[in-house]
């Protein structure tokens, strides 16, 4: 199709699904039975035929304030009319400074400088670069090793997949970054199958960092990066005391601690940030997803002395301070300032978690694990088949969740939608039980 033909086409319904290669999706299966979402409001997605689907994923953890918030829509409309784009380098618009000040004021501890990015993946790679640059500028240029964790997810950039610990995301891409090592995953089914809140077992796994340091020597290690609660390979809260121990070891050896709060930031753990919940001060924090309630923005927050290293490097992207995304973030943070997002997530999440434990008691043959903290929780099933059938059964009944983890309470969740989520799960589990 020529450009002019493409311009003339006014039909917005897709009649050819081939060209778009969907990420993290079995493409052939999807295209045989496409699930197209055309609208969203509050807790619901709507299909093209008007069918409502309860979004129990809070838009993949992006829409903590609920879909289609009036305030956010108004802000982005106004922004698009006023200023669509101003260069991110050598020039700036005032909104970037305003938002940076606001995020810095909110960010945990002394993370009072922020760097804007377009996605969590870009922000992770940027944080790793900042860590390396920081040591280089201080004359400790031998500190080049980065330590991640097995089962960790840090996006799709080369830095992120190198420190991440998901084999499917790594195996086709060669040797990745050199000099990366991994802590062991913190989840252990035997010890943590039915936890409420942070598991009691597992703080000692942080001591593995001592072993890695003994192997490579601290003078070669720049930074450790972990998710305070892993969200892509299940919902795996850090065991009690784990993050504090990691912090202490990093301090002992002059290693930077980067908390990847792409999921956990902005209320998801019942606190503004996981760093607050656990009383752990990161040297750098990566924030994304809910910061702009689904619009493309992510942030690296860092201490002033760390950011000084960046001043000598060139890292940013053209759309880093795209003004509509910044306006969405300002409006989102305004919602957070006026509404008790954290308290709401905690209350609704507690209702959900108690309900999931009840479901386990009723269907103990099928549900072999329940965990997470109130605002993010998971169910484990006895087999992959049961997990798949439950996901399909829920989808058929208009409930959408992420298959690796049931979750997610957003601000738009109320008692009724939590109860509906639990009811639907109960029906599907009862049916699965009949059939096994
Ligand atoms: C902890 C964590 N870090 C980084 C990312 C990457 O963010 P994005 O998908 O916006 O690139 C994700 C995405 O799910 C994430 O969960």
Describe this structure in words.
- With 436 residues, this protein is of the alpha/beta class.
- The protein folds into two domains: 13-65 and 340-435, Aspartate Aminotransferase, domain 1 (Alpha-Beta Complex), CATH 3.90.1150.10; 72-338, 3-Layer(aba) Sandwich (Aspartate Aminotransferase, domain 2), CATH 3.40.640.10.
- It has helices at 3-8, 27-32, 58-61, 70-82, 94-106, 120-137, 158-163, 167-170, 189-192, 208-216, 242-253, 274-278, 304-310, 323-338, 341-362, 384-396, 415-435, and strands spanning 37-41, 44-47, 52-55, 113-117, 145-149, 180-183, 221-226, 229-230, 236-237, 256-261, 284-287, 298-302, 367-373, 376-381, 399-400.
- Strands 4-12-11-10-7-5-6 form a seven-stranded mixed beta sheet, sandwiched between helices. The chain has a four-stranded mixed beta sheet with strand order 1-2-3-15.
- Helix 4 (70-82) packs antiparallel against helix 14, helix 5 (94-106) runs parallel beside helix 14 (323-338) and helix 6 packs across helix 13 (304-310).
- The chain is globular, with a radius of gyration of 22 Å.
- The N and C termini lie far apart (51 Å).
- The model has no long low-confidence stretch (mean pLDDT 90).
- Residues 119-121, 124, 153-155, 227, 231-232, 260, 262-263, 288, 298 line the site of pyridoxal-5'-phosphate.
- Pyridoxal-5'-phosphate (PLP) binds at residues 119-121, 124, 153-155, 227, 231-232, 260, 262-263, 288, 298.
